[in-house]
Design a protein that fits this description.
- The protein starts with a strand and ends with a helix.
- By secondary structure, the protein is of the alpha/beta class.
- α2 links the parallel β2 and β3.
- The protein is built from 9 helices and 8 strands.
- The chain has one domain: Metal-dependent hydrolases (TIM Barrel, Alpha-Beta Barrel).
- The relative contact order is 0.15.
- α8 packs across α9.
- The chain is globular and about 50 Å long.
């Protein structure tokens, strides 16, 4: 079955796609993927996704400095990210956020870059994309502080947090995006949380080449596999896969102002 789907988060500039990107994109198109957001994690990565988007109209670029890359950013890298973010082709800022799983980047440096991304996103009226790993309380606290009691246009990407975290993110106006982790056999609690997210705030993604869904777990992930996560999300909400695809695609187009 062909679905109308958008993969809202992947990394097509990764080495894993260097040899067969054209085939990867063709497989995505064949199952109904209409747009793919490819996310920058550093200055060079952001430049790469811009180049890919110029070559392949299906790709929409997102530029930013991932928290795990913040320490190695050169002094002028942020200025260049700011310039790139304002290009009409760029649909969002990120990915940004906090990561306490890896210990390489001091949390204060991560927080500084997180705030920069949020401020930039507001300045240019584009959404921001949030990475959160083992740092839910810190991420929520910073988001609440930055929102000032208002709402923000942004995404909690590859969400795997608690129901309470999801509720707080929704209160701040954020969308919740689910990746292949939603399909893993032991993730009943995550599926229960996904069932509480309103339909108009849901997104689907792959985070490819990482986090392949259950049928492909352990293999390289790719945008075509968005369909597997979409199917599980549809089952959770008691609607058809086609209906869920239409809903998440509508949500993505409205949030990222996709044509």
């Amino acid at each position: 079955m062909t679905l109308n789907l958008i993969d809202t988060h992947c990394h097509l500039d990764a080495n894993a796609f260097q040899q067969d990107l054209t085939d990867v994109l063709q497989r995505a198109i064949e199952i109904g993927i209409t747009r793919i957001l490819s996310i920058g994690v550093s200055r060079s990565s952001s430049e790469a996704v811009l180049q890919l988007a110029a070559q392949h109209p299906i790709i929409a670029p997102v530029v930013g400095i991932h928290p795990n890359y913040a320490l190695e950013a050169a002094p002028d890298d942020w200025d260049l990210i700011r310039e790139m973010a304002q290009l009409p082709a760029v649909v969002a800022v990120g990915e940004t956020g906090l990561d306490r799983y890896w210990k390489d980047v001091p949390i204060d440096i991560q927080q500084d870059f997180f705030r920069r991304h949020i401020a930039l996103a507001r300045e240019i009226s584009k959404p921001f994309i949030v990475h959160c790993r083992d740092a839910e309380d810190d991420v929520i606290a910073l988001l609440q502080e930055e929102s000032g009691g208002g709402t923000s246009a942004g995404v909690m990407h590859s969400f795997c947090g608690s129901r309470r975290t999801a509720e707080l993110c929704l209160e701040m106006g954020l969308h919740i995006s689910f990746s292949g982790m939603l399909t893993y056999r032991r993730n009943d609690e995550l599926r229960a949380t996904a069932a509480t997210v309103p339909l108009n705030r849901l997104l689907v993604e792959t985070d490819a080449p990482y986090l392949a869904p259950q049928p492909q777990r352990g293999k390289r992930n790719e945008p075509a596999f968005t369909a597997m996560t979409n199917e599980v999300l549809a089952e959770i909400h008691g609607i058809s896969a086609a209906e869920m695809a239409e809903q998440t695609t509508r949500n993505a187009r409205e949030l990222f102002l996709l044509s």
